[in-house]
Write a structure and sequence with these properties.
With 315 residues, the chain is of the alpha+beta class. The chain has a single domain (4-296), classed as Jelly Rolls, CATH 2.60.120.620. The chain contains six helices and eleven strands.
Length: 315
């Protein structure tokens, strides 16, 4: 749980860094799970002639670098969400027991309960972020989960149905996040209202609405988290290191309130009033996403945000 002083700071500043939230055992399990997923994918890509056979001793990072250099999409097979559009029955996603244990981690839920109460839903606006060194990215790489993330508010990248929802973002560091390798930066105390966003290369706050000179970096060590209020403007710095920066972007809202992306599946992560409604089976979590994928593959496109490129503040 958060202390009273931490809660006051979060409410005042709109963000809070909390170190040592996720235990090393959980982090190691996530790394093993993604390494096994990489081995599976690498074998498939090798059979397709997309990558060279793996050399002895190649690590997860070595294979990821080779996949990225080969110029095909390695990101989506690792993500814990579906993409904005182009969803088919074959769209890859990753839902495994280690990630489920992270999403439902007791320490995270205790902290979230301090802010929004004991009836907690896992919000489906969630992603893994595995960011390569910026110098290795081609100029046409604009995905926020891979390259620099532009200034935005988390409420701004959901649908209006969730504008009154009590929600908190939990940004989990799997590797150390530093100003050198692209940690988050925030504008403390600025999130008092929704700013207009524009559909640029990413969905981003319209020019002139935030004073980026007031931005401060928010470094955090592996196993730590950053809490974000849904109106806090934030972005990420470029990864100017020689390695990858790895994090998860998770959200939680009060159960029964709209998630802002209702066509994706949510689940009850904690309920003090009705504990029988909690989900404890990672396979059920995966099955819900697979069912959503099958449905959306046969449905008209559903927008994931409200903004247009030619809005009144975007000309």
């Amino acid at each position: 749980m958060l202390t009273q002083a931490q809660t006051i700071r979060f409410l005042d500043q709109g963000y809070l860094v909390v170190e040592d939230v996720i235990d090393p055992t959980t982090l190691d399990a996530i790394r093993r799970e993604y390494s096994e997923r990489m081995d599976e994918l690498y074998g498939q890509w090798q059979c397709q002639g997309l990558v060279e056979p793996a050399a002895d001793g190649m690590t997860f990072w070595d294979k990821l670098t080779q996949c990225y250099g080969a110029g095909f999409d390695w990101y989506q097979p690792f993500d814990i969400s579906l993409p904005h559009d182009g969803i088919s029955d074959e769209t890859p996603i990753h839902f495994g027991p280690a990630v489920f244990d992270l999403v439902t981690h007791r320490n995270i839920l205790d902290i979230v309960e301090s802010l929004i109460g004991p009836e907690i839903t896992s919000n489906p606006i969630q992603h893994v972020r595995i960011k390569p060194p910026q110098r290795n990215l081609p100029g046409n790489e604009v995905r926020a989960h891979v390259t620099v993330t532009d200034w935005h508010q988390d409420r701004g990248v959901s649908l209006p149905e969730a504008d009154q929802t009590e929600v908190v973002t939990v940004w989990v560091a799997v590797t150390d996040a530093t100003p050198v390798n692209g940690c988050l930066q925030v504008i403390p105390g600025a999130g008092k209202e929704m700013y207009p966003h524009c559909l640029k290369e990413q969905v981003a706050i319209a020019d002139g609405f935030v004073d980026v000179s007031k931005a401060v970096p928010a470094p955090v060590k592996a196993g730590g988290i950053i809490l974000l209020h849904p109106l806090t403007p934030h972005s990420s710095l470029p990864n100017n290191s020689d390695g990858y920066r790895w994090s998860f972007d998770l959200r939680y809202n009060v159960t029964g309130q709209p998630t802002g992306r209702g066509h994706f599946p949510e689940f009850i992560a904690r309920s003090r009033a009705n504990p029988d409604t909690e989900m404890h089976d990672w396979q059920e979590w995966r099955a819900r996403w697979e069912a959503a994928r099958a449905h959306l593959a046969r449905s008209p496109h559903i927008e994931q945000h409200r903004w247009l490129s030619d809005g009144p503040h975007c000309v």
